[in-house]
Write a structure and sequence with these properties.
With about 90 residues, the chain is an all-alpha fold. It is about 60% helix and about 0% strand. It has two helices and no strands. It has helices at about 5-30, 35-60. Helix 1 (about 5-30) packs antiparallel against helix 2 (about 35-60).
């Protein structure tokens, strides 16, 4: 039986989801405004922030994505915590 997850699991996951939302919106905007330097800077800032937060999350809780997008320790971690869409 799985043990309950700590509160910061959900806090970090919610922060990742918020950053992902911003990145999707900036991507859509930049598709139609490719010369907007400020939007590109915001995109890069959020992408950098996401990379670091995702690395911290995966170190503590395991992979966020499968198929070679995230590393796994032994034993296979993908099945150990709820998948991102299950929380």
């Amino acid at each position: 039986m799985q043990q309950p997850l700590p509160e910061h699991f959900y806090t970090m996951l919610q922060e990742l989801q918020a950053i992902d939302f911003v990145l999707v919106e900036l991507t859509l905007y930049l598709d139609t405004h490719p010369l907007d330097v400020q939007a590109i800077q915001q995109y890069n800032q959020h992408a950098h922030q996401r990379m670091h937060l995702a690395r911290r999350f995966e170190t503590e809780f395991g992979p966020l994505m499968a198929y070679g997008h995230s590393y796994s320790r032994h034993p296979w971690q993908w099945i150990e915590t709820p998948w991102p869409w299950q929380v």
